[in-house]
Design goal:
single chain; alpha+beta; Molybdenum Cofactor Biosythetic Enzyme, Chain A; binds ligand LQZAQKY5; six-stranded mixed β-sheet; Molybdopterin biosynthesis moea protein, domain 2; Aldehyde Oxidoreductase, domain 3; elongated; 3 domains; binds molybdate ion; four-stranded antiparallel β-sheet
């Protein structure tokens, strides 16, 4: 097998661009004792005076043979291969680069390709979960190689995997500003027996993603009224999203799922394998999403609505498969 590198004694003036083979310590009596340069450091022109000042006229370096990369360069090539839109890279540090969100948006991370890269051994892509809402600066992925000197062939393999898919491995999708129509059902709210608690919460959740509730309309537990309000939001207000709250379970007065179907929606799923939020309905009227929101959205901080809303705001269409996949790791409470 070809030797990956060799230890070489070189004059410091000739060491620029070479890789330091071990840590170098500086001692200034009474003031400082510690590492001046770390093993693996690539020596720069400006390091020469500092090296000479600690009495080093010669140092051991590792010469990179053709076909081998320093850990920083290897990590950089991996990070570049994974980087999609609205993703920024940090500088390499100890062979690690972090990919960070450039905007507030929805992180999209391709698990299948991440798994293929991590199966290569000695190269690492460590990520957060796909479909996470991220703020600017939020770390999305760390890339690192394990040895100080890395075979280039392995990094080329990472690059081939990264190119073998639809779109990048990591990107952040921006949120669109959706105009949502909100219909609150429940005769107890409609008749003023209790005060509405759904409106403020739904408004807040939409606002947090840059969207808005254009109007909230109250409806009694009456299918025809709910259908009429859905059609008004769809045809008159041209809402981008229609949300119907309450009446989602099994009581005789729970009219919402029936009314959404009666309005002509193609129901993707009534019932979501996540707790809380299992009674949520999602469907489409043309390309306008319509959702039935169960009572728990009012009082539980994280439900199936919080999983699906960011994806809808990022312009994604929710499929039956998306719903199915929410069950695994979807148990939060209830
Ligand atoms: N036998 C079953 N019972 C329940 C089931 C089930 O599968 N089988 N599912 C439970 C789950 S999970 C949830 S979540 C709730 C779903 O509730 P609904 O969406 O049907 O909500 P409502 O019955 O309309 O109301 C529940 C509760 O909340 C009050 N409410 C409703 N809207 C408002 C509002 N806008 N402001 C303030 N308060 C509101 C309402 O008065 C009720 O007290 O069902 C479980 N049960
Ligand atoms: O839908 Mo309940 O929607 O699981 O708390």
């Amino acid at each position: 097998m070809k030797q990956q590198s060799m230890l070489e004694e070189v004059k410091v003036e000739e060491a620029v661009g070479m890789v330091l083979a071990h840590d170098l310590t500086q001692i200034i009596p009474g003031q400082f004792k510690g590492r001046l340069f770390k093993k693996g450091h690539v020596i720069r022109e400006e390091d020469i005076p500092a090296l000479l000042s600690i009495g080093k006229e010669h140092i051991y370096t590792i010469r990179l043979e053709a076909g081998y990369l320093h850990e920083d360069e290897a990590a950089f090539r991996m990070a570049k291969a994974a980087q999609g839109s609205q993703v920024e890279l940090t500088d390499p540090h100890e062979g690690k680069i972090t990919l960070k969100a450039a905007i507030h948006g929805l992180a999209k991370i391709d698990k299948a390709r991440i798994d293929r890269v991590n199966a290569l051994d000695q190269v690492i892509m460590s990520t957060i979960k796909t479909n996470t809402v991220v703020a600017p600066g939020k770390p999305l992925m760390g890339t690192r190689v394990i040895p100080l000197i890395m075979e280039e062939a392995k990094i080329a393999a990472v690059e081939r995997i990264a190119a073998d898919g639809d779109g990048p491995i990591v990107e952040v999708k921006p949120f669109r500003k959706l105009r949502a129509g909100l219909i609150t059902t429940g005769s107890e709210v409609f008749k003023g027996r209790i005060q509405d608690k759904f409106g403020p919460i739904v408004r807040e959740k939409l606002a947090a993603l840059g969207s808005e509730v254009i109007e909230q309309r109250m409806a009694p537990d009456d299918s025809d009224t709910i259908v009429r309000e859905i059609h008004r939001f769809l045809h008159e207000d041209r809402a981008d999203l229609i949300l119907v709250t309450g009446g989602m379970s099994v009581d005789p007065d729970d009219r919402t799922p029936g009314a959404i179907k009666q309005a002509g929606a193609r129901v993707v799923s009534y019932g979501t394998p996540m707790l809380p939020g299992s009674m949520l309905l999602i469907g489409y009227l043309g390309d306008v999403p319509v959702m039935g929101l169960p009572g728990c959205v009012m009082h539980d901080p994280y439900t199936s609505f919080d999983v699906l809303l960011p994806r809808i705001c990022a312009g994604e269409e929710i499929t039956r498969e998306d719903i199915m996949e929410m069950g695994y790791s979807g148990l939060y409470g209830c």
